């Protein structure tokens, strides 16, 4: 769950709401997540990139033959103590490039999978993988993003969804 949200948007056509927006979320791990939406774009882009120090994953929802690509690329940090002071700054980080793997994934209809999981949860008398709490977490982020947009991108701390659930 993000700890805070900042949103910036624009309404270049006078529609009364942001048509182009950027959302930045600070995560509890110290990482950040960034999202860009543009309702005016003539092309659809549905790509998620997760970058790490050892690998980068790219999910492209519009490329059915290669939805997931795993790049063995990252950075290597040199041990600062082993470097001379004059070279430390220049060689602290080195970039590593390796192979790309695109695993074969079974094509599935997203809505059919969600409905199958929901039916299985009912039949097995268990909580669904994404139930009301997941929806509440999403709404918490969206409400904070709306407040941030109204305040010209001011960072909005998030109230934990567990606190909201307890307040009901």
Structure report:
The chain has 168 residues and is of the alpha+beta class. It has a single domain, classed as Dihydrodipicolinate Reductase, domain 2 (2-Layer Sandwich). Helix content is 28%, strand content 33%. It is built from four helices and eight strands; from the N terminus they run E-E-E-E-E-E-H-E-H-H-E-H. A four-stranded antiparallel beta sheet has the order 3-2-1-8. A four-stranded antiparallel beta sheet has the order 4-5-6-7. The longest helix has 19 residues. The radius of gyration is 21 Å and the shape is extended. The protein starts with a strand and ends with a helix. The mean pLDDT is 87.
Structure summary:
With 168 residues, this protein is of the alpha+beta class. The chain contains four helices and eight strands; from the N terminus they run ββββββαβααβα.
Essential attributes:
alpha+beta, Dihydrodipicolinate Reductase, domain 2, 33% strand, four-stranded antiparallel β-sheet, 168 residues
What's the topology here?
Elements lengths: L1 E9 L9 E8 L4 E7 L8 E5 L4 E5 L7 E10 L7 H7 L1 E9 L8 H14 L8 H19 L5 E2 L3 H7 L1
Antiparallel strand pairs: 1-2, 1-8, 2-3, 4-5, 5-6, 6-7
| Strand order, largest beta sheet | 3-2-1-8
The CATH class name reads: Alpha Beta
Please tell me the CATH architecture by its name: 2-Layer Sandwich
Percent range for helical residues? 25-40%
Provide the CATH superfamily.
Dihydrodipicolinate Reductase, domain 2
Describe the sheet with the most strands: 4 strands, antiparallel
Q: What class do helices, strands and sheet pairing give? A: alpha+beta
What general outline do the C-alpha atoms trace?
A: extended
* Number of contiguous helices: 4
Average predicted local confidence, pLDDT = 87
* CA gyration radius, whole angstroms: 21 Å
- Oligomeric state: single chain
Strand content: 25-35%
Kindly state the number of beta strands: 8
Q: In angstroms, what separates the terminal alpha carbons?
A: 20 Å
* Strand/helix succession: EEEEEEHEHHEH
CATH topology: Dihydrodipicolinate Reductase, domain 2
Unreliable residue stretches: none
The tally of domains stands at: 1
